Amino acid sequence: MMHYMNEFLAKSPFDLYELNLFHLVARRSSFTKAGQEAGLTQSAITRQIRGMEDRLGITLFERTTRHVKLTRAGARLFEKSDALLAEVNGTIRELQRDFELVPQTIRVGISRSIGFAYLPGFFFAFRRKFPGVQIQLAQEPSRTLLQNVEQNELDVALLSPPPHLPRGLKITHRFNDDFTIIAPPQLQLPRKGKQIDLIKTGKLLMTQRWISIDRECNTGKRMHHWLAKNDLRIEPAMELDNFDVIVNLVSLGMGVSLVPHRVLPIYFNRRAVQKISLKEKFSRELVVVVRKNRKQAEYLTNFVENILF
Predict the structure, then answer these.
(1) Do 198 and 279 lie in a common domain?
(2) The model scores a pTM over 0.90
(3) What is the pLDDT of residues 60-119, one digit of tens each?
(4) Over 90: is that where the pLDDT of 145 sits?
(5) Are residues 297 and 165 part of one domain?
(6) Taking 90 as the threshold, does the pLDDT of residue 211 lie above it?
């Protein structure tokens, strides 16, 4: 048995370090970008990958002056080894956590379409109960967050879910997030007495410049479907990936928008906007996502349980 192990170690075509470098190049589609992230020069990481290919006897990447692309063999190695690396990284974190080798840390990812006003509810109760646990926060597009949770680079993500969740992930909590239309304070809204005339207001809104969340994100797709359903067929003058920026632009008279109610409170003292309520409200679902089949630390379970919405 020992002879077999020594022979395996001597002939192994790559180690975990090289496998991680291979994954970096595959994800970034660039030796230069992967090298920068790994702290290596472009030539150094190229030599590492070339050595893997020579020992395997297989070409892993197609290289041109314009791009780096996985070959069929490279795609197979990437797919099969992805779960392995996630499991190894997860095991290392468990060892560090359970034997107190590093401070307890929760890595939280939040979708870019979730505004700053949400953060106190996400963290406040947990911070009071577990002041010694560190929180690392990342704000990324939902697709990136799901990949990072699946690859064990994040512990938990809060986002608007896609139609189909990756098989290695699960949803633990769901929340409804209601929206309202906002307009600049100087926009004159049609009224019947003291009430806003919704029919005339709807026609007025059609003539305004719209500032919208990116229609390619999960929230944006659902929002544009809802607007069309309510005969508000708009072509946005501007699309952004952040509702905090959108509220500020509306308050400056740049246009009108549809934003979450929860984004507004932190701006009312500084940025004035008008809220317009329609008969049918738009609402999105926000979810908490974690990995399946992974023993969760007690403080991570408590973090998820203490999210307030």
Answers:
(1) yes
(2) no
(3) 999 887 788 999 999 998 888 888 888 887 777 677 666 665 567 888 999 988 877 777
(4) yes
(5) yes
(6) yes
Q: Mapped to the 3 state alphabet, what secondary structure does the chain carry?
A: CHHHHHHHHHHCCCCHHHHHHHHHHHHHCCHHHHHHHHCCCHHHHHHHHHHHHHHHCCCCEEECCCCEEECHHHHHHHHHHHHHHHHHHHHHHHHHHHCCCCCCEEEEEEECCCCHHHHHHHHHHHHHHCCCCEEEEEEECHHHHHHHHHCCCCCEEEECCCCCCCCCEEEEEEEEEEEEEEECCCCCCCEECCEECHHHHHHHHHCCCEEEECCCCHHHHHHHHHHHHCCCCCCCCEEECCHHHHHHHHHCCCCEEEEEHHHCHHHCCCCCCEEECCCCCCEEEEEEEEECCCCCCHHHHHHHHCCCC
pLDDT exceeds cutoff 70 at 5: no
Final residue of a domain: which of 15, 45, 80?
Answer: 80
Number of domains in the chain: 3
What is the arithmetic mean of pLDDT over 38-54?
Answer: 87
